[in-house]
Amino acid sequence: IRFSDMHVNLLVQSYAKTLSTSDVSRIEELYLAFFNRVPDSDGLAYWLTQFKSGASLAQISDAFYGAGISFSSITGYTKDMSDQAFVNLVYKNVLGRSEGADTEGLIYWTTALAAGRETHGSLVNTILNSAHSFKGDIQFGWVADLLDNKIAVAHSFAVRAGLSYNTDADSISSGMKIAAAVTSSGIDAALKLIGINADQFNLA
Questions:
Q1: Which three-class secondary structure state does DSSP give residue 195?
Q2: Which of 53, 67, 88, 146 could, after both became Cys, cross-link 100 (CB 3.0–4.6 A)?
């Protein structure tokens, strides 16, 4: 179903049902981790089927990194970016740290990249796992809450509503605006940008 600015993917829900909730959420949050944007339904449907066909999360993550380079003017990734710049960008996207990585984290992750212990893709997955481990922590629990809220909005947009913008550039830029409206304490502002409310999907 196509409209002037967006269209609806009628198959993405059926694709999502063939995978576990945790696997769907991880693929959704790769969009958030790499680009700080909600996924479009078409792109998400493609990666869900790729995962179902045997592609690993690391392979999908590495493909996301390549896509980020292709849209460098929007995403901030470049083919010649330093490991430090990459880690700082991931910290901003995943952990909500506008200043990037702390000194200790920056040294640890850049060393892991330089030594080959992590690829760009595997590093993102490892940091995502670390972010979720803060759930309920008095000091850093907001990190996990922020990521969970972004996933909830991403799922509402791409799977429950099945929405995609009509161009790749709009999917990235508008998806970033939606993700940026999510906070660790609420999702209403982001859902309003989509044009839905929490009650529609029992998200209140």
A1: coil
A2: 88
Q: Which residue has the tokens 């629990």?
A: 141
Q: What single-letter DSSP state applies at residue 39?
A: P
Confidence class of residue 160 from pLDDT cuts 50, 70 and 90?
Answer: very high
Side-chain half-sphere of 7: how many Cα atoms within 13 Å?
11
Two structure tokens written together for 25 = 């959420």
At residue 29, what is the residue type?
E
Give the Cα separation of 150 and 145 in Å (integer): 9
Length of the chain: 204
CA 44 to chain centroid, in Å, comes to 11
3-class secondary structure per residue, 17-72: HCCCHHHHHHHHHHHHHHHCCCCCHHHHHHHHHHHHCCCCHHHHHHHHHHHHHHCH
**Which of helix, strand or coil describes residue 26?**
helix
| Distance (Å, whole) CA 143 – CA 137 | 9
CA distance 27 to 14: 16
pTM, to two decimals: 0.88
Q: Name the amino acid, one letter, at 150.
A: K
Alpha carbon distance 127, 125 (integer Å): 5
Angle of helix 141-155 relative to helix 120-132, nearest 10 degrees? 110
Amino acid at residue number 151: I
Whole-angstrom Cα distance, residue 135 to residue 184?
11
DSSP 2: B
Residue of higher predicted confidence among 69 and 151: 151
